[in-house]
Amino acid sequence: MQIAQSEHHLKVEQQLFDVHANLDVKRAELELVAARVAVARLCATHARARVALAETPLAQRDFSQARRRLADLEQRHAETAHEVASLESAQDALIAKLVG
Fold it and tell me: How many domains does the chain have?
């Protein structure tokens, strides 16, 4: 019985290690995507100002592209944030198994 508990404990520890490693990677990715969102938001703001000043088809096209890029990055940010939250929940559950 003691051996089975010890093996179970080791298995949970390995799972916790794996989840923690994945969580570190996803948190770093989330920071990177957040920085890219900030840059894309600034680019979209500048493109919108160019449309207001220039009122040319080229300026409008640039603004449309900047908005699409921003929307794509915001979606990626939301998905990555969801992945981080899921990994944090998995980590909490594994810790609860170890201590409880």
Answer: 1
Q: Are 96 and 15 spatial neighbours (Cβ–Cβ below 8 Å)?
A: no
Tens-digit pLDDT profile for residues 40-93 = 999 999 999 999 998 899 999 999 999 999 999 999 999 999 999 999 999 999
Structural domain of residue 56, as residue ranges? 2-99
DSSP per-residue string spanning 74-95: HHHHHHHHHHHHHHHHHHHHHH
Three-state SS at 16: helix
Give the Cα separation of 83 and 100 in Å (integer). Answer: 25
Q: What is the pTM of this model?
A: 0.86
